[in-house]
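Q: Convert this sequence to structure tokens.
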Amino acid sequence: NFGPNTTTFIIPGEVFPTRYRSTSHGISAASGKLGAIVAQVGFARLKDIGGKNAWINHILEIFALFMLTGIFSTFLVPETKGRTLEELNGEEDIEDDYAAAHAKAVNDSASSDKEARANLS
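A:
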């Protein structure tokens, strides 16, 4: 299943930031369903413009245009091969900053404890 399942479930899992992934999955899935409804209802009405099934060739041209748009938009998706989710989301920098801040807080706490003990003596 290369088509809709890839664009609805696999690519959002790799591209959207972890913090917003579940919401983005919902929006992605809803957009796919809405597109299917619009295509079914809208193109069913268009096919008979100018006579019975007279507009079928134009509908296929419209579908081809959307497929080409999908192919070109796929090139906008960043490559995720060999990278962790943290690297993709830039969370490594946040974790490093957190670890540095935590180490500083522990050191500050230890030095203030030593000063407090020295003042008590």
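The mean pLDDT is 77.
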